[in-house]
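I am writing to request your help with a piece of structural work I have in hand. What I wish to show you is a protein chain and, alongside it, a tokenised description of its three-dimensional fold. Could you please explain, in whatever detail you think fit, how the structure tokens follow from the sequence? You will find the record immediately after this paragraph.
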Amino acid sequence: MPAKTPTGKRLIETRVAILPTFVFIRAAETTAGRDMQLRGLAVLAALRTSPHPAFSIFLHGGRAPLVGDREIAGLRGEEAREAATIQAMRDAETHAEAERIRRAAIKSASARRRAEAALEREQRAQRRTGAAALPIGLPVEVAGVAAFTGVTGVIEAVEGHYAHVRFGAHSWKIEGWQVMPASAALRSTAA
């Protein structure tokens, strides 16, 4: 990160969390064990003086969500790439070589993000080409829309590429490629 020094500005190394406001813990195997973990965390969060920064426990639907290892694999990969880049910069013989390594890492990260975005756009375009083929009355979930995560709706009508889905008292017109049977959505989330 940039730092002011007596001789001007330069880059200094500092440790910064990728997700600075989130901490993940390995969940206990049993429900009782997870409940004990949550109670222990709640006690730590309530302490007036603590060796930890202030925190709260994220709850969704009254429960702490379980995040699978595969769901944070990308985060771990990014962390490993950054660690390798930092180590290569430390091992560099000259400042110029370290700067070249840093610039190359920035360029490759930008290229990787562009390639991932292009692949995602291409996959979304392919999914959008087919008409929604879901039977009326089918319980469904919506993929890729955070507001509908974990909410089950029912197909009311299909109109070309769109499905009309009722959630409680409200009906929404949603692109058919985002709608999947509720049991399939649960399986893909658990995997």
